[in-house]
Amino acid sequence: MKKFLFSLLVCLSAQLCQAADTRFTVVTVDPARQDLRLFLNDEAGQPFKSFGRLQDWLQGRKQRLVFAANAGMYHPDFAPVGLHVENGKELAPLNLADGKGNFFLKPNGVFLLSKSGPAVLESSAYPAQSSDVRLATQSGPMLVIDGKIHPRFVPESSSRYVRNGVGVLDGKAIFAISKVPVTFHEFATYFRDTLGCKNALYLDGSISSLFSTELGRADVGAPLGPILGVVEPAPR
To answer: What are the per-10-residue average pLDDT scores of the chain (236 residues)?
Structure first.
């Protein structure tokens, strides 16, 4: 039944979004029915770095990866730049500092999963919402904030990259990755106007990666830091 529901969500997302804009691939995850987790290191403290290694690690525990995406930005040693919470345990603190690069293009934000479901919110709002958080990853910039495009994005921008991000709608996490280079403004507009997400968060650009058994996709590229993944028991 879980596999059927996941397949249905993927198919519906793909059909609806491809009809609206073929530049993007979208996968919808329902945490109420699917086991969404955040990964970084194995039990020896070694970063997974790839979907393939994470998949092998899970198989050794009689589980399997059915969906995954890169999640949150990281330092050269793969340590998260900002907040990282796994299984309710904070492994890296919230980062509200100023700096250069996309992560620090304020407002940045946090994608989290708590007993209330998934949420995307500005980083500064996280402390007030941090109770009962099961997982959380910080990235930046925010794409959509309370229905408004990030104020630093401009329609005439010439900065185009393959990009991926996450939004929330009706208690579900909506993951999107572009098939072609797009601007921040185009990507944010897609989340708001096509996907209907009032809040959405940029995950990354050059390392944007997607894994989906239903779509037959397993991106291989630059080493990854934090990874968001949906896990199921391995078939017997």
So the answer is: 47 46 96 98 97 97 97 94 97 97 97 97 96 97 98 96 98 98 98 98 96 96 96 91
Q: Where are the beta strands (DSSP E) in the chain?
A: 24-29, 35-39, 63-70, 84-86, 89-92, 109-114, 117-122, 133-139, 142-145, 148-149, 164-169, 172-178, 200-204, 210-212, 217-218, 227-233
Length of the chain: 236
Separation between Cα atoms, residue 92 and residue 105, nearest integer Å: 20
Domain span at residue 10?
Answer: 2-233
Say if residues 199 and 144 touch (Cβ distance below 8 Å): yes
pTM: 0.91
Residues 11, 57: Cα–Cα separation, whole Å: 28
* CB-based burial label for 61 (10 Å; 0-12, 13-18, 19+): exposed
Domain count, the chain: 1
For tokens 């990853």, the residue is 137
Residue 3: DSSP 8-state: H
